[in-house]
Design goal:
Blueprint: E1 4-8, H1 14-27, H2 40-50, E2 58-66, E3 69-78, H3 84-90, E4 93-97, H4 106-118
Antiparallel strand pairs: 1-2, 2-3, 3-4
């Protein structure tokens, strides 16, 4: 698998978000992705602010990239005891592979990369 890496999400990632949104719409024409070009900056801002709030789950977002093309999104969570749902059911890592890249092992490899970030 060529050059697979995690890229920290940034406010300048609108082209990545556009790729994400287009892939979801292609495979799920009746359902919009939970992150899209219009909602991205607010979503990311909320996650960045969470990192400074000791009473919140701290959210760290990473795009899973393959040769500079987005193929997934990984959400790392710390301080999960601050939210009963994450603590009991959600855990420290959440991820979503784009529909066109599923069932190829990218989630497993991305999970290994995400665990390296936790170290």
């Amino acid at each position: 698998m060529n050059n697979l890496y995690l890229k920290e999400a940034d406010f300048d990632d609108i082209e990545i978000v556009n790729q994400w949104e287009q892939d979801y719409l292609k495979y799920n024409s009746n359902k919009s992705p939970y992150i899209n070009v219009d909602s991205y900056n607010g979503w990311l801002d909320l996650h960045k602010r969470s990192q400074k709030d000791e009473k919140s789950v701290h959210l760290f977002d990473y795009w899973l990239m393959l040769d500079n093309k987005v193929i997934g999104l990984f959400l790392l969570r710390t301080n999960i005891k601050a939210h009963e749902g994450f603590y009991k059911y959600g855990g420290n890592v959440g991820y979503d592979i784009m529909p066109s890249y599923r069932r190829r092992g990218y989630g497993t490899i991305g999970l290994h990369l995400a665990l390296e970030k936790f170290k």
